[in-house]
Automatic annotation (TrEMBL):
It comes from Paenibacillus montanisoli. InterPro entries: AAA+_ATPase, ABC_SmlMolc_Importer, ABC_transporter-like_ATP-bd, ABC_transporter-like_CS, Mo/tungstate-bd_C_term_dom, P-loop_NTPase, Transp-assoc_OB_typ2. The keyword Secreted does not apply. This is Carnitine transport ATP-binding protein OpuCA. The lineage of its organism: Bacteria, Bacillati, Bacillota, Bacilli, Bacillales. Its EC number is 7.6.2.9. Residues 3-233 form the ABC transporter domain. It catalyses: a quaternary ammonium(out) + ATP + H2O = a quaternary ammonium(in) + ADP + phosphate + H(+). SUPFAM superfamilies: MOP-like (SSF50331), P-loop containing nucleoside triphosphate hydrolases (SSF52540). GO terms for molecular function: ABC-type quaternary ammonium compound transporting activity; ATP binding; ATP hydrolysis activity. Keywords: ATP-binding, Nucleotide-binding, Transport.
């Protein structure tokens, strides 16, 4: 493994910011570090960079323990969310800063900065100063500066937080391509789930200083291992008494367990549209929200309110309409674990003979 973190813990003033975290990362992977505010993401990143010292545990890069290695000697590039560019330096000098500190030759600096200007699309901007650049351009300079010394590991602390939504989407696509071209192992912190899902090869989900789950975006979304991950990733509705739902009343649900139901688990329509009417609930449409590619329905089912998606190509529904609601599956939450349960009343329809 390229990066190994073993049983890292860090406490600040009695608060455990990182709690016995272990994970490993293969070379060249782009990892999204995701979790709520205060969950320990930035602290973990700073420990990797050597800007914080762990209370316990070990960090290995390329098989070498680096706990006692100074930050500038760890072979790590760091990109901050506020760019942290030197205002009195132009683009060329900002990118060259790390090389200059390492006393690289002028020829080496000129060659390397030229490569990065081309790689980041900044050729022609090398004599401009940060205040003469757009937010997206400033962030590209920050990336180039971090990459100039050819680090083994690139760390990015919410690199797109200060950029507007349209440019942020363009930059994260660019970042994915850049990391793929360079093959550099990278970890980026983000609050944006869409960003993590779109960019990351793998995700690390943390909360309260603990690592909840590691895996590909698809794996984490479709197979959450903990109650927190099931509720944190995607959009879910909490159902306090899942046994009250048709199809799940006869399931072996743990007494007192709650359920999480995602919109894609729910099918809403007129009775003739639902393929398994015996497994469906009766419901009423309360609100309809236009989401561009689809409609989001707020549906009342007994004492529960569920969200569901409906295609724009389907027959329109209106608030107040009585509908059939088929819940295909749900996540049962019990003892901090998440288990997916299928609606047992769903059966394959009888074959049609022509």
């Amino acid at each position: 493994m390229h990066i190994e973190v073993r049983n890292i813990s860090k406490t600040f003033h009695g608060h455990k910011a990182v709690d016995n975290v272990s994970f490993s990362i293969e070379r060249g992977k782009l990892i999204g570090l995701l979790g709520p505010s205060g969950g320990g993401k930035s602290t973990l990143l700073r420990i990797l960079a050597g800007l914080e010292t762990p209370d316990s545990g070990d960090i290995f890069i390329n098989g070498k323990r680096v706990n006692d290695v100074q930050p500038q000697l760890r072979g790590i590039g760091f990109v901050f969310q506020n760019y942290a560019l030197f205002k009195h330096m132009n683009v060329f000098d900002n990118i060259a800063f790390g090389l200059t500190i390492r006393k690289a030759s002028k020829a080496e600096i000129k060659t390397r900065v030229g490569e990065l200007l081309d790689l980041t699309g900044l050729r022609g901007f090398e004599h401009r100063y940060p205040h003469q650049l757009s937010g997206g351009q400033r962030q590209r300079v920050a990336f180039a500066r971090a990459l100039a010394p050819k680090p083994d590991l690139l760390l990015l602390d919410e690199p797109f937080a200060a950029i507007d939504a349209k440019v942020r989407k363009e930059l994260r696509t660019w970042l994915k391509q850049l990391i793929g071209t360079l093959g550099i192992t990278s970890i980026f912190v983000t609050h944006d789930q869409d960003e993590a899902v779109e960019v990351a090869d793998e995700m690390l989900i943390v909360q309260k200083g603990r690592l909840e789950q590691q895996g590909s975006p698809v794996h984490i979304y479709t197979d959450p291992q903990t109650a927190f991950v099931a509720g944190f990733i995607g959009h879910s509705t909490v159902v306090e008494q899942p046994e009250s739902l048709r199809g799940f009343g006869g399931s072996s649900l743990t007494a007192g367990a709650k359920a999480l139901i995602r919109p894609e688990f729910v099918e809403v329509g007129r009775e003739r549209e639902i393929p398994f009417p015996s497994a469906a609930e009766k419901g009423k449409v309360r609100h309809i929200f236009f989401r561009g590619a689809h409609l989001e329905l707020d549906v009342e089912v007994g004492s529960n309110r569920l969200s569901a998606h409906r295609s724009l190509d389907q027959e329109p529904l209106q608030p107040g309409d009585e509908v059939s609601v088929l819940i295909h599956r749900l996540y049962v939450i019990s003892d901090e674990s998440a288990t997916i349960v299928e609606n047992p009343l769903k059966v394959d329809p009888l074959p049609v003979h022509i």
